[in-house]
Amino acid sequence: MDDELRERVEREAEKHALLNAVKHDSDADVGAIMGPLMGENPDFRQHGGEIPGVIGPVVSEVNSLSNTEKRDRLEDLAPEELAEMEAEDEEDDSLLPDLPNADGYDEIRMRAAPNPNGPWHIGHARMPAVIGTYKEMYDGSFIVRFDDTDPETKRPDLDAYDAILDDIDFLGFEPDDVIRASDRVETYYDHARELIEMGGAYTCSCSGEDFSNLKNDGKPCPHRDKDAETTLEEFEDMVAGEYSSGEMVLRVKTDIEHKNPALRDWVAFRMIDTPHPREEAADYRAWPMLDFQSGVDDHLTGVTHIIRGIDLQDSAKRQQFVYDYFDWEYPEVIHWGHVQVDAYGVKMSTSTLKQLIDDGELDGWDDPRAPTLKSLRRRGIRGQAIVDAMVALGTSTSNVDLSMSSIYSNNRDLVDDETDRYFLVRDGEEFAVEGGPDTAHPPLHPSFEDRGTRDIPVGDSVLLESGDVPAEGDRVWLKGFGAVRREDDTLVATGDDLDVVREGDVDVIHWAPADGVSVRMRTMDGDVTGVAEPDFADVPVDELVQFERVGFVRVDDRDDDETVVYFAHK
């Protein structure tokens, strides 16, 4: 490398190091700038072995600067690129609208309130993605509260508590508090007793049908005016389990003539005979309904802002009656529409997925065909890719469509630079090879020559994918090997140089030795088998690689006969 080229490399390296440091508000990294440096300056690639040694001292010098000095230096070197980067950052920061009345609170506290009846499907990721992002925006708190006070119709799954926390961790967030509502039943009882003493609740033994008729007619229940002492005694009998399911409920006294019948004297507690699956809560029989439990918890845990579906607008209106009795201030509420996810033929429903697993139609929650976070994780999708896609949806009250292609695009940006390349031939056709080198040496990554090459022995024969097989007498370019012409069942090296590719005369295809590594690739459309090049055998389990012209995959398992990978995306 001559002095003039070295100066160019150092100048470009300084620019890219500053861009990297300013963008991420941290020290620059040699590995992170190699890709863009080589991409913008393809003539540097022939000196790939020398480049890291040249740019290392430059990066160290950049990292010695303060953040202000880095930005000022970048503004001198590349003002247009700095302006473009800051505009992109400003656009990214404005994906979520400001929280209403945020300045009126000492601390922003938000909660995700999952029902722990199973691991999360993709749609569930929206709430923690948005709440976690708001937490970062406002330096607030993120509460996870398991709303598990329905041991019958929405029966909790004991494994789901940890599974959901694992999903949140996968998305890149750590809750500040984790609460199980079933641990707080005595707290709900205490608030029910206070409400009764205020005259704000009464016990009711009407049948569901009878009360519904009265409610719809705007007529009071005959139990509505019983005194607080009687109501309290009957409530204590509920707590003691003296009633069976359906015999007695506790109702919040609202407005029996309210224009919305759903808000008229709604149920706060009911009897449930089925024991809770958690041992700590198994003895309770009087359980709070979600609107009562959630309303009390939101106040006691200091929640300032609630995000909930547009279909749950009545919840805030019901809870407001309780808040008025206790003279509490209701949190700010943001309503949003549902998110619809494409690309799956399976309904995004925890109960539906559980039934498909029980019936053996899915192998488990991480089956590649399942629209779950566990499945995406096993396929090699980064949590950040999901978060970025969910945050980009905003908080519109309209239903929104999430294309899986947006998650795949985000993930590609995150993993492309770090994933090495290999060849996989699916259901290949076998050909002998005549002439040419004994071993091919394609790069591990086309943008990072310093990573080196793979060694692919040609052997006696190679495999081509059926769609790549040339017609008799036609040529193709085997990546890393060279041009070959098909002559019956043999591929004969022609000695052509790369100009035949540049001129568009010859297609470039991948290939694999016939005796390569057997691979089973699990995809959303079922399993695909194939053969990979020998060096692929050295890739560790859990590593992400790209099969050239096929897509990104995560190595899942190996045995003597076969390597199993999970397909992520193209």
TrEMBL record:
HAMAP family: Glu_tRNA_synth_type2 (MF_02076). GO terms for cellular component: cytosol. Residues 420-490 form the Glutamyl/glutaminyl-tRNA synthetase class Ib anti-codon binding domain. The keyword Nucleotide-binding applies. A motif ('HIGH' region) lies at residues 114-124. Coiled coil: none annotated. Residues 107-412 form the Glutamyl/glutaminyl-tRNA synthetase class Ib catalytic domain. Its main location: cytoplasm. Residues 509-556 form the tRNA synthetases class I (E and Q) anti-codon binding domain. It holds the Pfam family tRNA-synt_1c_C. Catalyzes the attachment of glutamate to tRNA(Glu) in a two-step reaction: glutamate is first activated by ATP to form Glu-AMP and then transferred to the acceptor end of tRNA(Glu). It catalyses: tRNA(Glu) + L-glutamate + ATP = L-glutamyl-tRNA(Glu) + AMP + diphosphate. GO terms for biological process: amide biosynthetic process; glutamyl-tRNA aminoacylation. GO terms for molecular function: ATP binding; glutamate-tRNA ligase activity. This is Glutamate--tRNA ligase. It is found in: Cytoplasm. Belongs to the class-I aminoacyl-tRNA synthetase family. Glutamate--tRNA ligase type 2 subfamily. Its EC number is 6.1.1.17. Keywords: Aminoacyl-tRNA synthetase, ATP-binding, Cytoplasm, Ligase, Nucleotide-binding, Protein biosynthesis.
